[in-house]
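Hey,
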Amino acid sequence: MISRLAFLIGMILATPAMAAEPSVDGSRGDAVLDAMVAELQRNVAQLRLEQGDYELPYFVRYSVREVTNYYVNGKNGAVFASSNNRSRVADVDVRVGSYELDSSEDKEADYNFKQKYTPNFVAPMDDSIPALRGVLWLLSDHAYKAALMSFHNVRATMVNNAEEKKAASLSRETPVVLIEDVPDLVVDVDAMQALVRDVSSVFVKYPEVFDSSVEVSAVRVVRYIVNSEGTRVRSADQYFQMVIGGLTRAPDGMLLGDSVVFYGRSTSDMPDRATAVEAATELADYLMALRDAPVLDPATVPVLMSPQATGVFFHETIGHRLEGQRQDDEDEGRTFKSYLDQEILPPFLSIYDDPSVREHDGVALNGYYRVDDEGVRGTRAQLVDDGVLKGFLMSRKPIEGFDSSNGHGRTEGIPKPQARMSTLFIEGAKPVSQGKLAAMFLKEVRRQKKPWGLYVDRMAGGSTNTSSYGYQAFKVMPTRVYKVDAMTGKRTLIRGVEIVGTPLLAIKRIIATSDLYGVFNGYCGAESGSVPVSTVAPEVIFSEMELQRQQDTNERPLILPPPYGGMQVERGLE
C-alpha cells in the first residue's frame, strides 16, 4: 500500500550520533565491533582440537543484531500496550572443510550434535568488550565442535553418493568494509499514545465493527558483521509503521477483516493525525459495506489486478521459487530449475530484484539495504528478461551455474541467512494507459462470453508451497475485490473469495500491463524469519484465474451490543 504522508511531526525524531575516530579495523572505536574482531582473530588463529588430526575452521563469521523498538497499541480510544524494548543477539557461523565442500552441507546437523549445554545467543546490552567476547567464545566453541561432526558426516555421505556434487558450499566474495553512523531514535511516547487514542476512537461509532486495533511502532535495527575474510560491517536502518485494523461479521456469520498499513523509512513517510483518522474512517465504512456484499461462488474468469495486488501475486508465485537455495535442494519442488534461458513469462515482462533502490516515485521501500546479512553488497539480480529466465536470488550458497552471491542472503536474526527477496520489480515492455487496460479487460471478458470478470484492488497476502512433498500451488487472499459486469463495466463489491492455482500456468495467462505502477511494502516470513520486503508492479490482466470460496465457520454474531455504544468516545474527533 502506497503511503506518502507526513507522520506525527515531532513525534519521532532521528538525529545522527557523533561518529568516533576509526580504529585500526575501521570500526570507529565501536566496542561491539572491537569485541567481535578481537574474538574472531583469536578463534581463527587458535580454535582447534589438539587430540587427533582435526581441521582448523577455514571460515568464521560473527553477527550481532541490535533492535530498538517503540510500540503502542490501542483500541476504542484507549491505550492497551506501550513498550520500549532494546535487545541484542549474536550469531556465529564456523565452517570446517573448504569453499568447495564444508560442514554446512550436513542436513542433519541439528539432530546429530547434541550437548547437555547449549550457549545462549543473547548478547549484552552494555558495550562491554569482555562480556560480548564471552558470548562469542561460547558460541564459537559450540559451533566448531558441531562443524567437526558435521564435516565428518558430510564426507561419509559422499562415499555412498552416486551423484557428483556440482556446486561449492560457500562462494568466494570480496570483503566489504562499511561502517555507518548509528542514528539516535528519540521517541515522544506521549504523542504516540495520543495518536493511538484519537485514531482508535473512530471505531466506537461503528458497533458492527466489534473488534479493532491501532498500532504504531518505530524500530531501529543495527547490524554488525565481521568474518575471517576481512569483512567489517556496521549498518543501521529505521522502520516506521502504523497498522489500523478492524473486524466485523456479515449477517450470515462470515468473519470479515481488513487493515490499512502505512510503512516508512523516516518520519516524513508516515501519516499525520488527520490523515490517519481519515484512513480509519474509510476502513470502518468499507467494513460496513463488506457486510452486505454478496458471496462469490467458485469460478474461472479473467482478472484485472491493481499494482498492489500484482506485487503480492508475483511475490508468492514467482519470487519464492527463484530463491537460489531452493534449486539444488531435493526437498524443494524446484519449479524453475530446468527453465534457465527458457521462456517462463510472456515476452513483454521482465523481473529483477534490487535492494540498492531506496525509493520508487517518492515512496520509501521496505526492501532497501546496502549490505545483506552475510556481509555482501546488495546488488541488482536480473531474474527474468523479456520473459526468459536468466537468474536467481543468490546468497553465499552457490548453486549449479551460479558461483557468486548477489547480496540476497537475509535473516531475521538467529536463523541462518538464505536467499530472499528485497524489492521485486515487475516491468512491462508494452504498457498501455490505465483506461485502455480497463477496456482490454472488458473485451477479454466478453470474448470468453463470461457475464463478469474480477477486479482485485488489494490483497492481504498469500501462501505458496515450494516443497517437493506437496502440490506446487499458491493461494492469495484479496481483501478488496469487485465483480465487474461484462456489458456495463459496473463494479460490485464481493466477499469470501480466494485466488488459487499453479505458478507455471498462472503466469502464462498474463496478457497486458498498464503504465500505472505502485509500491507494496510489507514483511515476508520464510525459513530464515521475517524480513522487510517491497514490490514495484503495474496493473495486470490475466486471461483466466481460478476462484474459490473462503473457508469460514460462519459463527453466530455477538449477543449483546457493545457497552460503549452510547458513550461516543470523542477524544480528538471534534
